[in-house]
Amino acid sequence: MVRTYEIRLERHLGPAVAALFAEFDVRHEPDGTTVLIGALPDQAALHGALARVRDLGLVLCEVRAVDAPVPGR
Amino acid sequence: MRPELAARLADAWNHPVTLVSAPAGFGKTSAVVAALHGVDGSDGPSAPPVARGSVAWVSLDEDDADAPRFFRLLGAALARATGLGAEFLTALAVPQPPPVRTLLTPLLNALTEADARVLLCIDDLHLVVDAGVHEDLAFVVEHAPPGLRLLVASRADPPLPLHRWRARGQLLEVRADDLRLSAEETSAVLAAALGRPLDPASAAVVHRATEGWAVGVRLASLALRGAAERDERAMVASLDVGEGFALEYLAEEVLERLPPPLSAFVLDAAALDTFTPDLVDAVRGTKDAGAQLDRARAAGLFLESAAAPAGSRGGRTWWRFHRLFQSLLRGHARVVDPEREGELQRRASDWFDAQGAIATAIEYARSAGDDERTARLLDASAYGLVMDGHARLVERALEALSEDARARAPHARLAHGWALLLRGRYDDLADVLTDLSGTVDGFQGADRAQLAALRAVLAGTRGRAAEALERAGEALAAAPAGDVVTRATAQMALAGAHREQGDLGAATAAYERALPLCRAARLAVPEGLARAHLGLLYSQRGRLGKALSVTQPLAGSEAHPAAAAALAARCSALLEQDRRDEVRRALPGVAALAVRAGQPAVIANVHLVWSRLHRAEGEAERAREALEAAQAAAAKGVPTWLGALVSIRSSEASLADGDVDAAEAHLHAAEALAPRGPVASELALARARVHLQHGTPDDLAAARALVRSLTDAEHGSDPGDGVRIAAHIVEALVDAASGEAHGARTTLARAVRAAEREGYVRAFVDAGPACATLLRAVGHPYATRLLRAFGPDGQGDGAAASADGEVGSLTDRERDVLGELASARTYERIAERLGVSVNTVRFHVKNVYAKLGVRTRLEAVERARRWGFVAAPGGDDADGSPASHS
Fold it and tell me: What is the CATH number of the domain that holds A57?
């Protein structure tokens, strides 16, 4: 099921690293972090992206589903 | 150079488990190597090697994730370090190794007895995803002798019971913060790399920006090495104020300072997962890749040697960049030229295609996102790939294609259809066939035959026998005469249709025609399946020896993509002869293969054998669990008849547990699924057993009528000895229950005589103590043997009476000789073939006769045939050669 995710990483990523996350839009935040925003087809795609974060040694701050259904509904 | 870290890591000798957990590039491996071997690559004085024992080192690669491979590497490392564990390795080297857990205990015992002091180091454990490996590793730690210590290095904390070990003070942890270089260490690394000290302020900036991350410091030293003094200051200043990712910035700096030809080479080579100079030259259209590679290695650009890709020609060293550096290079290259990576990968795809490494060629075409090329490569090779066991590759590649591209690969989709069929995904297959029907008008000859064959098999799995037969006929008619591949496929479809109709004789004949065609066409999967079906059919029709010999060729081929199906059938026949030791040894491996292949039908079959084995060993609970597993597998998609068979077996199990109602319910389910067809006789037998259990006069009469209908010759085709024996046994029990002692004896004697020919045992023992009582009244030598199989408690634990005793006592050489005896060769020829003297042959023959309790060559050969060592005389199996010469 397609869902939009935001992955927040420490530091401002440059174009070369951004190019490794082509399925995301990349936004630099004023607080010095980078947010990757993308609509991912499924959980496997999300975990694939997170494995890339790990393998690059990037520091993960936050992962959240933007359009998450409200719990309890 | 890092004495504190080294001392900390050397403390691994004092802890049962050490975990070195940190992201890529933190220098985990080199820190461990330095601490344990006293080597650190620096010129300074190094710590003395810590010699508290030997170090067993296991380096994992992407391909080592599966359990048998992992434990083979582990066993080999332990054997190198301690000289122990040869048995462990040997036990794992067989085609179907037993569960690792059973082998670990003797290994640990051996280490305990030898008082071995060994530190087992496993590097890159994050590559292992098989949860079973972690469980077995935890078992090792929990049961390790005091001399055995474990150290694992990983990018992520592994799923081991770390919490428990931490609480018990058994765990030493070395994490990212422990591995970070201190400010002084950073200065020292930079000074060593630059050949001069860097000013303290700049070194401090590097330290802060990289946070002591080893790969970052190394990149910084590479960048600084090529920089002029002014550049150096500018670079340090940027690092100081930069909000960016230090590694990315440093990699850019390194690239900028390389001579342009070298940086171009590096960026292009990074588009390839692994490479040789030949490959790089081919994709770049250059001739200097060898020289550039040497320069890149001299410049310290994170190059490492790698395993050769699938299907590539041997004899070359393959290289790759450190994965972290490679990612940075690829990112940079995509910014410079977004199209280039794909172009290079397309050319790599061509190169591998020309080398005949088709699977790797397809992977590169996929990486390049080149749908057209992927579709073309797939369409040309998919059938061979699927039938060679690469179904998943084909499936992944097809899924990644756009709909347009997929439409241009009809042959690949046909091949994919076979893959779906094997994995029980009948609905998906039906969808593919519907989709393809638009293209079908364009199909000629072989394609039309393939499509018809697929439709036939799909109809068969759904119990539509008449349609299956009709489609199979179409397939045969359309298959071009010289096209063995298509003819083999069509024969397989026809055989399946006959089976679905319940005509086991015609089905057997069709599989027998298909088998040599599959072999001629080198179709590994269909060949394995033909052997599997023949194994099951021969068993069902009472030809256990033939069932064993037709499946024998796969008994040593774990890698064969259809080994699981054939070996499950083989185990079933072995169990019928009560050769439980052999089944117990083989079954776990077969189950693992079946699960890996993801074929529900095979998984269900394996669990059916397992259930019967457990029941034979008096483990009713485990037998029930196995049946539940078979039911679960059947629910995932198996042919209708197999689903019915699972229900029939469940019914028999319930009956054995005394639960007649449950037995009836399972039987109703089976009848609803497949009232006629291939399991009709099994169904009748099961129904008769339920009647027998009820025991009223009406029930007994009904049971008798049912089994008589199976054995009466005028009722259609010959049911075969398997059914006949089972029917006679039930009838004898019915006779006994009706007070007809004489009739019971006569009927059972018939079953005993039929059973002796092929060594049937379980059919009698499974019928229970009542059968044992009747057997005592049958004055026949084989009845006496059968009685021994019942064991002292009448439940059947007398393995000595089974074939295990006889066959198991033969040495390998004696088995060879027995196989040769069946060939009608003279002793002189046998001696020549086995490379021994004639006297030695005589010696072995004498022993074989003694062990088998026979006096003549004819008797020995008869016995060998019965146990499946050799094919039946005049057998139509293409593998009639003695099985033991491989």
Answer: 3.30.70
